[in-house]
């Protein structure tokens, strides 16, 4: 799937995060948040489809180089939040154990993170 194909699934992560927050963390959101997620998803999907149509009209141009470079730019920003990342890794390690298979258990939050990544991975390759 090319870079533009990947973008078509990105708005779904807003909906997924909202839904998982409700299911796992038992959060309740205001009607404005639900409406915001729906409108943002609609806007991103509309712009992505319009951009894909424009790029497909240009022979030999995929748009992947700029797309991939744009994802590398924020990486140094993680240095600024390194202590927060370390703190959250510790919190994940301390979460309640979840037995996956008889005799094998792991911290619940790590399981949720891995499950989230694995279920979204097919849409970004």
UniProtKB/TrEMBL annotation:
| Lipid bilayer topology | Multi-pass membrane protein
- Where is it predominantly found? membrane
Which InterPro entries does the entry link to? SCL35B1-4/HUT1
Task: Give TM segment ranges.
Answer: 34-53
Q: Which domain of life is it from?
A: Eukaryota
Q: Which UniProt keywords apply?
A: Membrane, Transmembrane, Transmembrane helix, Transport
What Pfam families has UniProt attached to this entry? UAA (PF08449)
- UniProt-annotated location(s): Membrane
Q: Does the keyword Transmembrane apply?
A: yes
Of which family is this protein a member? Belongs to the nucleotide-sugar transporter family. SLC35B subfamily.
Please report the name of this protein according to its UniProt entry.
Uncharacterized protein
Q: Which organism is it from?
A: Tegillarca granosa (Malaysian cockle)
Q: What lineage does UniProt assign to this protein's organism? A: Eukaryota, Metazoa, Spiralia, Lophotrochozoa, Mollusca
């Amino acid at each position: 799937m090319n870079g533009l194909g990947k973008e078509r699934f990105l708005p779904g992560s807003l909906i997924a995060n909202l839904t998982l927050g409700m299911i796992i963390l038992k959060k309740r959101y205001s009607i404005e948040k639900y409406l915001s997620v729906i409108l943002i998803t609609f806007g991103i999907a509309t712009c992505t489809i319009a951009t894909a149509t424009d790029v497909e009209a240009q022979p030999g141009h995929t748009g992947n180089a700029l797309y991939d470079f744009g994802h590398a730019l924020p990486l140094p920003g993680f240095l600024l939040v390194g202590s927060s990342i370390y703190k959250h890794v510790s919190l994940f390690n301390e979460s309640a154990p979840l037995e996956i298979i008889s005799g094998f258990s792991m911290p619940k939050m790590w399981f949720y993170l891995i499950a989230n990544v694995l279920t979204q991975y097919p849409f970004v390759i």
